[in-house]
């Protein structure tokens, strides 16, 4: 509960401050455009604070400040090299967030100065290993936009107000289990951006759901060479994997360009060096050319549920789909995402933990054929876990988590079914899975012992008898026997109600007669 409480406290504070900033921008631009500026400036503050923290640590034995060391040419070259090596970018002392806040207070800040800061940060990466990680990172932060004001002075005044509000927020940037940007994004989308036609859940998976998925995917692992999320959103699921295993490199794919930028920001915000992640802006299903040859030890995902895709006939020749005999239907790409992930599984002990709608467990036609192939021919499906309803931003539907493994460790003849739909903590707008609930699910999955109304280990023969229908109630019996009804007592009660009703009718008629009605 502590983590849920911490996340809710941050969300409450952010909601208040973000609303304050949104009101500054309201009337100048569409609501869904607020996030481009607010999140960009939050990230700029983080880059600045990261720089200050690092330089204070490096210079603590030299008896000088970062600003003093920068002025000394004997120090400056070494400082730049260290910053590029450690952080991947350079922010001069005069371009730090804290310096800009002082300029605002003295009335010296201009929008042109902010433009120069953004350009200098990006230019500091040119020719460096970190360059690709910064390309286009601030493209949504359009400081020349007339939506901020017709004149530079107006734009400067508006940006000053936003920066001052950001300065007043405790973002808990050093608490790595709090997804600051993901939380802020969800609030902005959910509360202020209805006109965008988007929901926060498309880009951000609630923290404890992410923890559950990451734990299921990393059981028994201490070192992960490559982890990938093919629909990475803000990158929260990828980052959670790093909380349970040492990840050498993170890979992600994201279709929406602004969210792609957010994911890269989030990686850096959580201390992942630019050299240790590769996030690409691509339609995962339609174009696999960039990551085509890569295989991953661990894959996690929360794809958009029942999204549409082309299901073009050319995919029958695509190695990701060609063995199944059928393509996922155009109206429901759920299995297409899963097939993509299966193709990218590394040899040996590789795993997948993916969140999908319950329909993938029982829908017919092409999906039934694909499902049977995964269970019968590949035999990678290790667990089917039903989760509570209303645990995701933007959708109240319950979903399931599928766990797949190439090496099943003696479980090749069975699949673990868990019904965790009743285990949640009720919230005001959505439900939450507690740490206790996560432990309950993970322990049941690891131990694989039958638990009444919760866990069942189904043999493949039984699944075959059910024609490869994986609907959880077929395997986990959650039926609650009702208490027997005493028909005689019910009859006596009904007779009494009828007698009372007749007596009341007589009494009412008497009143009506007295009133002359």
Structure report:
The chain is α/β, with parallel strands linked by helices and 517 residues long. The protein is globular and about 100 Å long. Strand 1, helix 11 (236-244) and strand 2 (246-254) form a beta-alpha-beta unit. Strands 3-2-1-4-5-7-6-8-9 form a 9-stranded mixed β-sheet, sandwiched between helices. It is 44% helix and 11% strand. Residues 192-201 have low confidence and may be disordered.
Total number of β-strand segments? 9
CA radius of gyration is 28 Å
The major sheet is characterized as: 9 strands, mixed
Order of helices and strands: HHHHHHHHHHEHEHEEHEHEEEHEHH
Biggest β-sheet: strands ordered side by side in the sheet: 3-2-1-4-5-7-6-8-9
Low-confidence stretches: 192-201
Features:
17 helices, 517 residues, globular, 11% strand, 9 strands, alpha/beta, nine-stranded mixed β-sheet
Secondary-structure blueprint of this entry?
Elements: H1 2-25, H2 34-59, H3 66-71, H4 73-86, H5 97-106, H6 111-123, H7 131-134, H8 152-167, H9 180-192, H10 207-218, E1 223-229, H11 236-244, E2 246-254, H12 257-269, E3 277-281, E4 298-301, H13 334-343, E5 351-357, H14 366-378, E6 381-386, E7 399-405, E8 414-419, H15 435-447, E9 455-459, H16 460-465, H17 487-514
Parallel strand pairs: 1-2, 1-4, 2-3, 4-5, 6-8
Antiparallel strand pairs: 5-7, 6-7, 8-9
